[in-house]
Amino acid sequence: MTNVKKIVECVPNFSEGRDLEKIEKIVSPFRGKEGVKLLNYEADKDYNRVVVTVMGEPEAVKNAVVEAVGVASEVIDMTKHEGQHSRMGATDVVPFIPIKNMSMTEAIEIAKETGKEIAEKYNIPVFLYEKAATKPERENLAKVRKGQFEGMPEKLKNPEWKPDFGEAKIHPTAGVTAVGARMPLVAYNIDLDTDNIEIANKIARAIRHSGGGYRFIKAGGVEIPERGITQVTMNLTDYTKTAIYRAFEAVKMEARRYGINVLGSEIIGLVPMEALIDSAAYYLGLYGFSMDKVLETNLME
Questions:
Q1: What are the recorded Gene Ontology BP terms (predicted)?
Q2: What is the spatial order of strands in the sheet that 217-224 belongs to?
Q3: pLDDT for res 3
Q4: Which CATH number covers residue 206?
Q5: What average pLDDT is seen over the chain?
Q6: Residues with catalytic function
Q7: Which of 291, 277, 203, 200 has the alpha carbon at shortest distance from 245?
Q8: Whole-prediction pTM value?
Q9: How many independent structural domains does the chain possess?
Q10: Does residue 126 share a domain with residue 142?
Q11: Which range of residues forms the domain containing residue 171?
Q12: CB proximity list for 7: less than 8 A, separation 6 or greater
């Protein structure tokens, strides 16, 4: 009987998007490892953050991630970190996504093992979030990260926010890390032709679930000073229920209220083909179209 390989994806986010030498050091543990494939890494200077996408066998991916967290804790000093993206640690967030021959329960188990190792090896407190959360209020990453690096020392004094692993005391320079398990999401940013962050925040508030908008959108406003614009930055947590085109059109509609335009948009990291096909079908007015009609899905493995 053949041994069926389990495949997991991991998308760790590190709080460094400007120093290429540091970024290469952080990414290095994902290169040349058996059972691990580095798919993509994308740095953003404004966010001062790099998003890495890796895939492979669970144990091998876990070991590479733990190693990269150690490197990040050595090269990143959060007391000096500035950027447009919310963050609470040198390794800010580590989500595991089951891809092939793997259940969500198994992804949760890998997340727990990873969190435990990070806390034990590097004295970095770890919160479990999303599907791996130990409390309902820890499912939402925004709630876990509220207060950011600067507010974490005070937050950890509250017994309600005792870390899942490690002491209730932040690492002095590496902060706090969140490790979790989730379904694939789409990290999506939409550019607005205004530098008014208040407008971007109002639009984000209108379309996100917590503001009465779409159930599977988490969104916020971000300034991009170098380009003189703002963005609505979002995570589409279930693209099968809230499609990319729906988020795009909703932002365009809200922008009109303020007399501004959408300049374009970008996807951060990798995205499932189905998510793009769905939007292509919408804009082309295709009916009866499905993934079965996509050439690549009919190719033999």
A1: L-histidine catabolic process to glutamate and formamide; L-histidine catabolic process to glutamate and formate
A2: 217-224, 229-236, 186-192, 262-268
A3: 62
A4: 3.30.70.670
A5: 94
A6: 85
A7: 277
A8: 0.80
A9: 2
A10: yes
A11: 7-181
A12: 55, 56, 57, 99, 100, 101, 102
